[in-house]
Amino acid sequence: MQRNRQMSGKNRCPNSNAALPTLLLQLFLVSLSLVNCFANLIPTGSQQFYQLSSEVSLEAEQVSYTFETQLSINSVWNNEQDQLLEIKLSESHVNAQQRLRPILSLPDRPFYVALVTGQPKQVIAHTSRDQSLLNLERGIASLFQLRRDSSDAKETELDISGHCRVEYKVKSSTRWEKTKRDCALWDLRVNYHPEQALGVAQHSEQQLSYDLSAEGLLLRAESVETHRLTLAAKPDAGSVVHSKLRLQHLAEGEGVEQLQQPTLAAAIESLLEWYRVFELEADVDGEISKLKEQTLQSQVELMLEQLKPEHLGKSSLASTFVQLLPLARLTKQPEFESLLESQSPLAAQLVDLLGAVQTFEAHNASFSHFYRGAGTTAESLELLEKYLQSLAVATHPERRILEHLYDFLQQKLPHKSHLKLRDSVLQTLATLTRQSGLDANDQLLQQIRNYLLEGLASTHNTLLYTRALQNLRDPLTIDPLLQQALQSQQPQHSVAALQALKSFPAFSYAEPHRQQFSSIFYQRQRRYDSSARTLALDILLAMRPSAEQLGELLDYLASTDRQFEIKTYVLQKLRMLAEICPRFRSMFQTALRQRAHVNNYNVLAQRGLTTVLSRQLSTSPAFNETLLSIQEVSQGILKRGSVEFLLHAGRAEASSFKLGIYTAGLSSFMGDSDADEGNDQIPADDELEQEETMTAGMEISVQGAQLRPLVFFNGQTELMGHVWGGSASDTTPAYQATTLAQDHEQYIILASGATVHWRVLGARSVDLNGKVTFSLWNRNAQTEIQQNTGTAVVSHLAVGFTYAKLEQQIELRHEPKLSLQADLDFYSNIKLCMQLERAEQLLTLSNTRSVYLQLVDKPYAKHFRSTQTIKSPGRTFVLNQKNNEMCNMILANS
């Protein structure tokens, strides 16, 4: 009575008797919850029977398999906190396409799960079990990972998927839900591409739900997980893996005989004569990714037709390339050498393949077969260079390759004809060092960096080492490069240093760097070459100028500087960025409105021939690609031009191919044809003190790797030889190669224990050719550049376990063709007409999905195939109004 009175006084509310039933109900639910928190999911000393069902599917349910088995779960050892469960599988079978196959080869021995404070910690399994079945047992054990003392909490757990971030939701006293994210074993990468646009995208999630009895017995546990795996540059191309694992209670058996051991550790120890202890975290089942027993030699012989030179620039060669690559990565040096010996007519295609392999076996085979010191033939030198150019785009080369190339550079050249090979070795080594992601304190990185900086400081071959530093892109080399850009009295050295600095990410620079780049562009301390100034401008804009800094650029347009080609470059660059970025467009328009002295026809009218533009080449459903073209003109002659192809994936972009042209000292060919044109005269942008040597060449960059430049001529004698001999009038190959693009491989462990293996390989086969006709009599020139590109991307996914497997292979083929024609007329006024065209193109997507039942009576296989073709019409790209006017004038007189 006293207690009742105390409670009544404590409540101090009217009608307290009415609140009593509610309070009792709450206390009852709390008591049930406490029972569930501390009760074992499998009651002490009991035997429980469950049905286990594991279903894995690819996108559609028709491509799926289901594994089912009966589980007998016995609690064979217990104390107040810990428990040992004995689990035995029986009546197992797999099912696909309504084809039911019993599994008769499963061992009849049970496995054990050790639970500490109610949570699974270890699996004790028979040593003879294969990795796939061991992972299945780990998956069953992980279903008992339920923290009933958690309430809407986020924490970390370790189960079959490794360490995962988990979040619990308590739905009722007998129902829990758990969400798993960012599991370590969902992203077991073997290879990956550092460029996001050339990589992959993955979205993974897992939901688990638990139903318990009022006493805490596990009635149902269900896991549903999804892994969406796509190409970053084409999100609609990829695979979706669904997995459902369900444990359903069937019945309760009789009492179970207990292991008579004092501790859990002793109970486990008593089993170790035939058993081993395994952690809960799964291991990859390597069987899922095994290749068929075959040799690279035999596969090449089957694909001889597709490897012929006439397939360069076509998707057929790119597709063959990626099909051979997985097998080539397992091939040893003797087989490579035998292949190069027996298939010498295909040597050019084979060295491209060996470069993409990136193993020391392939590297040794290449040098052993082609390099003979002073006795190396010109053809072998060319093929070895080709191997190095393919290797340069590698993303995961073996360290021993870097060490060998560095040692090669320490050797004395046996002959001056090896200078080009040495250049290619240097550029390849620098690129591979960057791609390898070596630690900043790595001794090899320090040796390579110091070697390049010593070469930069020397007066001999400064340009060679500057290009290598461009490929290395080590932040510790920024200041030496910047000093060269600021202080070098030779324009080509300053330009090369700024080209190298432009390759660095914008976040590499701080405010003092901005001031130094501004000093170059605005010529605050001395005069700089026009190319150096435009490159400095590119870096300043990449650093995201403030409104004040943008205003200073606009004010420059109204300055008294007579270098109108640079002003044209500035204006076109700003307009191009405004087209791409809405934020920049708003700031640009605001700054213009505030400057009446700039925002007028006199200042904004285009007075130069320089062109800066970006054009969309293709969009979804094809790849999202753009073309960036820069044509810097000086005195009517193309001084520095580039055409770059950019692949986009969301906000990320990657340069897939860049072609650059440079010239110097060619203004004498223009004569004084425009001397009497008054205000239309094109001013001399670079009145350098010394007379420049007549030079022209081509620079090629493949996926950011700068290759050794190709020199067309050096000096007036070589130039006149080309003009009078007409050696450039016929179509001439400038670059022919098949190189690796996408290169990704990873594993995923599913909650059911099944292993997913995903490999994405892509290749680009490029056939770049051109011709030039030059007439001193008619005072005109015509240039035609044709690029044929064949692209193939193959995504192969396999998922399964010992008795069932699903496969999906997606292949994308694409053959974009681009042509650039330039007509120059300098008979009277200087007129330059450029026409950029893209031919009609097709993108073909083939999808093959397969299901296999294996190692069972009457194995079964079923394949589903589909093909989709997307056509994009050809188009001619509008460059700018000035170019249109020039083309109309030239075509009218033709």
TrEMBL record:
InterPro entries: Lipid_transp_b-sht_shell (IPR015819), Lipovitellin_superhlx_dom (IPR011030), MTP_lip-bd (IPR045811), MTTP (IPR039988), Vitellinogen_b-sht_N (IPR015816), Vitellogenin_N (IPR001747)
Vitellogenin domain mapped to chain residues: 41-650
UniProt keyword terms in alphabetical order: Endoplasmic reticulum, Signal, Transport
Localisation: Endoplasmic reticulum
Pfam families in alphabetical order: MTP_lip_bd (PF19444), Vitellogenin_N (PF01347)
Primary location class: endoplasmic reticulum
Protein name: Microsomal triglyceride transfer protein large subunit
Provenance organism: Drosophila arizonae
